[in-house]
Amino acid sequence: MVQGDLVIQGKNKKTLTLKKFYCIGVCFLLICQAQANQIDSLFTANIAKEQLTDSTVQQKFDYLFFAGLNFVNHNNLDSAYLCFNTCCQLNPKASEAYFQISKIYQFRNLPDSAITYLNHAIELDKKNTYYQEISAAYCIAKRNYHGAVNIFEKLLKKDIDNETYIYRLIELYRILNMPKKELAMLDKIEQYKGISEEISLSKIDILINLRQDKKVVDEFNRLIRKYPFEKRYPVLLGDFYLLINKTQEGLMCYHKALEKDSTNGYAKISLYQYYDKIGDEQQAEYYLSHGLLDGGIDLSLKLDFLKKHIATLISEGKDEEAELFFKELFKIHPNEIEIYKFYVSFLIHEKCYPEAIDNLKTMLILEPDDKSIWDNLITIERDFQPDSVLATTQAAAMAFPRDLNFLFSIIYIHITNNNTAEALKVCDKAIEIATEDKETDKKGRFLMTKGDIFAKKDSLQQSFAYYEQALTYLPNDALLLNNYAYLLATCNTHLKKAEQMSSKAVKAEPQNATFLDTYAWVFFMRGEYQSAKFYMERALSYDKDPIMLEHYGDILFKLGDTDNALLQWQKSVEAGNTSDILQQKIETCNYIPDIITL
């Protein structure tokens, strides 16, 4: 036998060298890894009996422990638990096995059992800081902040320079409102890192709450000495003086800051706030307008002040001055979307719509993915540059190809331009997208739109079909119910169904004049003229639409009031109704039916 080889006597009295024995071990682990999901708990329980009969206790422990880890990696927690539990039996002082069982209980969302095993692992290995850190995490999760503090304080005593423990304690002391201890930890961090804005401002915040004014001033002065070129710190000190009613000291800080740097916008903004508070409008406005033009101040700090300044100029009729101020502001912040948004609002207020449109287009160059900019541009162009709105909306739809709102806008424009063929094409595309994205409500709305288009084309059977499809998605949609009911009434067909749908629409929106007109017209077609008159008069109390006036005349004629019927028909003409049939009614002083034939 070669010296150094380990001989293992088996049942068949064959010998294996240590090298061969390790090969068997490696094979065992590879089998575990390849067949982890197939190995059942019985196989796991028999590992020690069958394959490791002649191994040492430590070897059995090692195999079972690594097999358990492998089972955990394959999410086979039952088998892993058996492995680790057997490890605990083999070596009751092995903290790592108890820790792994703790993790299994945590995976199973059994925190109480997890903590029990974790605490046992800590008892067995009191020097293991990782176990204690996990225990502190459990405490924080259960909002046992005092327990977490106790753990981290003990850990910090053993590792006094550990910054992680110090920062954890700072957070916990803040939660528990223990300002003096938090302050001590901040001082400790400062010893390692030196003076910094983050630490100093945190300390200042605590000291202000503790009303230790002198120490607050000392902290600000330390910052000022450390960072002599930082504009904000002298101003913040001045703000603090004003906070504690030391006005002269505060003003002196501001003016000293301006003597050192006449462009210091922070000092000017603070002086604005001071003069605004005491009611000196002239001085306040002077410092605000100059402070806002300091390019060194972050824009987010300016916006509220900027809005107030522009509002003041507008209220005083200084629109030209406001325009000039924006131009100066753009020199400092040439590509800031927030300023553009505010400027566009100003231009719309001034009714400068072409300029607003130009600036919105500039904004899209800066932020092409901002839908709100596209929406605003489309809205303004629809009213003031209608020839451009279709191209803009199509560009928006290309930028956001699955945004159904832009497609609906395109359809609306095509309908307005009497281009129904293109409108129907876009409807089909929108329905396809809505189907793929499971946007059932929007699919119903596009189906309704197709029904509306075919109704205008007098393709009534197709219109009815699309309205029926739309109802499967929008059974309670008031607009759909109204449109469908009106078409049925106009065709003098299925009037009972029309009355039911129109009734639902009116109940949903009882002050909607269009819905009331439809309801009245359904009654008219059914020959129920008194009911028709009642609902038509309610409709006209909300809107004097020309069609409603014509309908009212028709109803009055059927009730025998020819003079008033003629008066309402004439009012309809004056309101813009150019219907040939209406002209015939007036000329013949007679009602002429206008029923669409199916």
Give structural attributes.
598 residues, mainly alpha, Serine Threonine Protein Phosphatase 5, Tetratricopeptide repeat, flat, disordered N terminus
How is this fold's topology laid out?
Layout: H1 18-34, H2 41-50, H3 57-73, H4 77-90, H5 95-107, H6 111-124, H7 129-141, H8 145-158, H9 163-175, H10 179-193, H11 197-209, H12 213-226, H13 232-243, H14 247-260, H15 265-278, H16 281-291, H17 299-315, H18 319-332, H19 337-349, H20 353-366, H21 371-384, H22 386-399, H23 404-416, H24 420-436, H25 440-456, H26 460-473, H27 478-490, H28 495-508, H29 513-525, H30 529-542, H31 546-558, H32 562-574, H33 580-588
Can you walk me through this structure?
76% of the residues lie in helices and 0% in strands. With 598 residues, the chain is an all-alpha fold. The chain has a domain at 476-598: Tetratricopeptide repeat domain (Serine Threonine Protein Phosphatase 5, Tetratricopeptide repeat, Alpha Horseshoe). Helix 21 packs antiparallel against helix 22 and helix 25 (440-456) packs antiparallel against helix 26.
Beta fraction: under 5%
The main pleated sheet reads as:
none
CATH A-level architecture of one domain? Alpha Horseshoe
Count every beta strand, where a strand is a DSSP E run of 2 or more residues. 0
CATH topology of one domain: Serine Threonine Protein Phosphatase 5, Tetratricopeptide repeat
Radius of gyration from the alpha-carbon trace, in angstroms: 41 Å
User: Quick one: CATH class of one domain?
Assistant: Mainly Alpha
What spatial form do the alpha-carbon principal axes imply? flat
Structure class: mainly alpha
- Distance between the ends: 108 Å
Helical content stands at over 70%
**Low-confidence segments, ≥5 residues, pLDDT <50?**
1-54
Question: Average pLDDT value?
Answer: 88
CATH superfamily of one domain: Tetratricopeptide repeat domain
**Number of separate helices:** 33
